[in-house]
Amino acid sequence: MASSRRRMLLKVIILGDSGVGKTSLMNQYVNRKFSNQYKATIGADFLTKEVQFEDRLFTLQIWDTAGQERFQSLGVAFYRGADCCVLVYDVNVMKSFENLNHWREEFLIQASPSDPENFPFIVLGNKIDVDGGNSRVVSEKKARAWCASKGNIPYFETSAKEGFNVEAAFQCIASNALKNEPEEEIYLPDTIDVAAGRQQRSTGCC
Amino acid sequence: MQEAELHDLADDADYAASQQQGSASLMRSDSSSRRSSASEPDGAEVVYWKDNVTIHPTQYASERISGRLRLNKQGPSLFMTWIPYKGQGSNAKLSERDRNLYTIRAVPFTEVRSIRRHTPTLGWQYIIVVLSSGLAFPPLYFYNGGVKEFLATIKLHVFLVRSAEDANVFLVNDIQDRLQRTLSSLELPGAVASGLSSSPTVGESLSISNEDRTDGGSFDGSASHVQQNGRRRQKVQDPARDLSIQVLEKFSLVTRFARETTSQIFGEIHSDGYGDSERRAHNQTLQNYSSSEVANDVEKVPDEVPVASDPLEFEKKTLVWGKPREAPLMSDEWSAFFDSEGRIKDSEALKKRIFYGGVDYMLRNEVWPFLLGYHAFDSTYAEREYLVSVKKTEYETIKNQWQSISSEQAKRFTKFRERRGLVEKDVVRTDRSLSFYDGDDNPNVNLLRDILLTYSFYNFDLGYCQGMSDLLSPILYVMKNESESFWCFVALMERLGPNFNRDQNGMHTQLFALSKLVELLDSPLHNYFKLNDCLNYFFCFRWVLIQFKRQVTWEFEFERTMRVWEVMWTHYMSEHLHLYFCVAILKRYRRKIMGEQMDFDTLLKFINELSGQIDLDATLRDAEALCVCAGENGAACIPPGTPPSLPIGEGSLYPLQDDDDVL
């Protein structure tokens, strides 16, 4: 039962500095809406969307988390069981790009996926619409070079405001999350995944 | 080595103070070691112990709790315990409570996910132990060093690997060890139970049943869920054995009766979240219930409201369930509270009045500075006028500090630029749908920014953290005046600052207290959360951090947030009414939560979306009743210094401030 539920639900975590557009990307993809009035995310929240992939229906559960480092101790509870991690930066803010490495590492520590080497990440350079691209400080080349150095992480340039490339990015996210799944299924009986472990134990004893 | 450290840190008052504390507890440790040696589980071998390992429940040095950290080996399993020393601190009664709350007893390493080591150049080494449930113990500070030895000892007995990503993180039972972990987890329940039941500290102060204390009186390993659930089921069949069940039953009965009575009287339709089956269960329990105490309460209730002639009598009886809410405090009544020189004659009566009715919106700018503690209740008109002018100057001085940073200087001041960037990002997305903050170049948005930046210089260690703009926005909306808003915010942050601390101590303490309260007031719900891996209560994080402020779309919602705040700020009945308010909401939806078998994700989503739908007045009444029902046992669930408790003793300290806020 646990495995069939896991196969249906794909959990995606969006990480990145405060204000890079995590909430906006999620809302643009799920609701096709953009608002200037999203609040800073406190704690965490998620939206779900049904996606079809190779004739199968899946529920994409997209987690939006607080961007301030101080809240990272919450990550343990929210990251676990993730199938894909989306790292977002703002192409107009160098620091948000430089922090991608930190976010990636923090995710691997807190989520402790079973195969960290091959865990699917995706990088989004957001806000390419701002000022017609004139305020941009991180070049696409630079971003792609970093992604290549981290095991060829797929890279997309997006504008959550204009909906540019968001659908394509999330399709890639969904398919990569899905690729991560079969392995999980094989390992499920012995996995250290806490939720699954618990379920197993409780059904065994009750 | 310790001397050398002392020397290096001679100018660090915080460090020096705790060194004194550390040596004081060293003297006590002889007797405590004898006592604690008696607490070894049968057949356990102590493979490591360290004295003066201390937790900092709050940022105040006086509230730190030192204890002994041990690693016990029992059969193939390794357990960690941390037992605080007895009789520490100035208030022995309080520390006894803390002892029970914070004691870590017999946590098996099969339940530990990782250990993060912190070895700051300034201050003490500490570790954070993260359980696989996501729950983390408070940081354990090694006043006498020994983190390396601790980790080395663990490595001898348990599969421990250094994280490839962060040299300071040690993963326990990493995936390579999957098989071993699965095997060892199978033997867990028995081992945990024996470790728990033989611990003598378990049976001390809380006046709930033995079993309750055993599995709930402290942090414990979560592997024994199933077994505990089994035990609990037995208990549910025999409520008399368990006071916490009694409290629950009593509350349900009384609430039901009080509700029916008051509904009749006021013709009020009250959606209480209790289903028919629960009502039947309650009726059943009522028929079987022989306690005269409950029967008395029940009989008292029906005549509670009509007998309003004697206010004292009225109060005593309606206390059983939250008193009916009143109209807000109005201008005439407010002026009657003052003597001729402007002192508030009876501040308790005022707090009580506001607790039950809140404040009329026109009066808030006068009343809030008192509730927040910016103005003293016994100050005169003249004293307040003087204070306001002095504080205005002081505000301008601090504001000038960052305003005088030129753009040239800012280029070499990364920390300032980053902090300003964070604040600017957040103020433009704080309550912008309200006309007060609406539109381009809104001057009030700029005021938010100025006040928050000034606060981050006023309290540079705490700095700016997300959520602060949410707390300031209603204050500025009410006060209108920049300097007054700033000082009211400062007063609020005296209470809530620990919520925003880098180690999230204030939040963890509150969520922990909340879990204890739910365990006391609704143990079936507690058990449900336990079985479903929800005991970290992260789903209540937003409620607690920004005080039930909701996604504000209309002035009306803003008004309701302000009402909740001013009621909580009275600290009438309890400083921690907000925690009872959380329990009240959870109890209202308990049937839905358990009936729909919500898991952590679903629960979080449900609670995030609940924000607009909470019946404010009814929930406040529930919270009041729960607070009364819980009484001393409830207060014992909440560690001293839990926000928003005001500091006990010395001034504010924010430890662990070395890390950069922005990465």
Automatic annotation (TrEMBL), chain A:
Its GO CC terms are:
endomembrane system; vacuolar membrane
Q: How does it sit in the membrane?
A: Lipid-anchor
**Compartments where found:** Endomembrane system
Would the keyword Glycoprotein be found if you checked this record's keyword annotation? no
Sorted alphabetically, which Pfam families does this protein's record hold?
A: Ras
Q: What is this protein called?
A: Ras-related protein Rab7
Q: Set out the biological process GO terms recorded for this chain's protein.
A: protein transport
Family as reported in the entry's similarity comment: Belongs to the small GTPase superfamily. Rab family.
Q: Tell me if Phosphoprotein is a UniProt keyword of this record.
A: no
Check the record and name the PROSITE patterns matching this protein: RAB (PS51419), RAS (PS51421), RHO (PS51420)
Name a GO molecular-function annotation: GTPase activity
Query: What keywords does the record list, in alphabetical order?
Result: GTP-binding, Lipoprotein, Membrane, Methylation, Nucleotide-binding, Prenylation, Protein transport, Transport
From TrEMBL, chain B:
* Sequence segments annotated as region (Disordered): 1-41, 194-239
UniProt KW Cytoplasm keyword:
yes
* Subcellular location as annotated: Cytoplasm
Instruction: Please name the Gene3D superfamilies in this protein's record.
Output: 2.30.29.230, putative rabgap domain of human tbc1 domain family member 14 like domains, Ypt/Rab-GAP domain of gyp1p, domain 3
Q: Name one GO molecular function term.
A: GTPase activator activity
Under InterPro entries, the record lists:
Rab-GAP-TBC_dom, Rab-GAP_TBC_sf, SGSM1/2_RBD
The entry's keywords: Acetylation, Cytoplasm, GTPase activation, Phosphoprotein
Q: Does Magnesium appear among the keywords?
A: no
Pfam hit, one: RabGAP-TBC
Show the GO cellular component annotation of the record: cytoplasm
Q: Where is the composition biased (Polar residues)?
A: 195-209
This protein's name? TBC1 domain family member 15
Organism from which the protein derives: Rhododendron griersonianum
